[in-house]
Amino acid sequence: DAGVIQSPRHEVTEMGQEVTLRCKPISGHDYLFWYRQTMMRGLELLIYFNNNVPIDDSGMPEDRFSAKMPNASFSTLKIQPSEPRDSAVYFCASSPGTAEQYFGPGTRLTVT
Amino acid sequence: GNSVTQMEGPVTLSEEAFLTINCTYTATGYPSLFWYVQYPGEGLQLLLKATKADDKGSNKGFEATYRKETTSFHLEKGSVQVSDSAVYFCALSSSSASKIIFGSGTRLSIRP
Helix (H, G, I), strand (E, B), or coil: what is residue A86? Predict the structure, then answer.
């Protein structure tokens, strides 16, 4: 299995631009999670899906952030407009319905 | 609410030293407990887990025992290697396939 796939691995953009992060979960996993990791705040859960339906989005910082899961094999996290304080590593993780999560390699986002 | 507290880092040890990273938790009921490890530039990966009181999780020479009486899940290894240098996260899940509560992480550095 290829594991959780995220793209791009690195993204550098200017403030005000739209950013879209992509995730392909492990085939057969029903749960998908988006996290953000920074030195200041550590690892934060942003949102998670079960069977493509958002279950808990209480961690999404503000309306500039949105996430979708149009099918079982693809999810996006969009930031519009981006700000320098959004700079972080964004992780996607999937789970087969047990308590274990499998993380992707992350997308390092830099907003200048 | 549920929470995880782990010892602050960074922790620096010499190769072959004994390692303990403390972790305590607060939760209702009987959560599952985990240790995840994050190597530089990578996503988190599950190191070991325990699902009920007195269970011992083990992997790659690391061990942790689920102690309900002290609400602890301390990570230990008898002889660390340079390759163990990473950030270690203690975590809990109060129900299957739901979100995981992560600790703040402990950075471990091993000197040759």
Answer: helix
How many other CB atoms are there within 10 angstroms of residue A55's CB atom? 14
Which residues are CB-contacts of A54 (< 8 A; sequence separation ≥ 6)?
A47, A48, A67, A69
Cis peptide before A8 (omega within 30 of 0): yes
Q: Write the residue in A30, A43, A104 that is nearest to B102 by C-beta.
A: A43
CB contact under 8 A, B96 and A98: yes
Cβ-defined contact of A99 to B96 (cutoff 8 Å): yes
Tell me how far apart the terminal alpha carbons of chain B are, to the nearest angstrom. 41
Place of tokens 């083990």: B58
CB nearest A100 (choices: B42, B49, B95): B49
Output the tens digit of pLDDT for each of chain A's 112 residues.
689 999 999 999 999 999 999 999 999 999 999 999 998 888 999 999 999 999 999 999 889 999 999 999 999 999 999 999 999 999 999 998 877 899 999 999 999 9
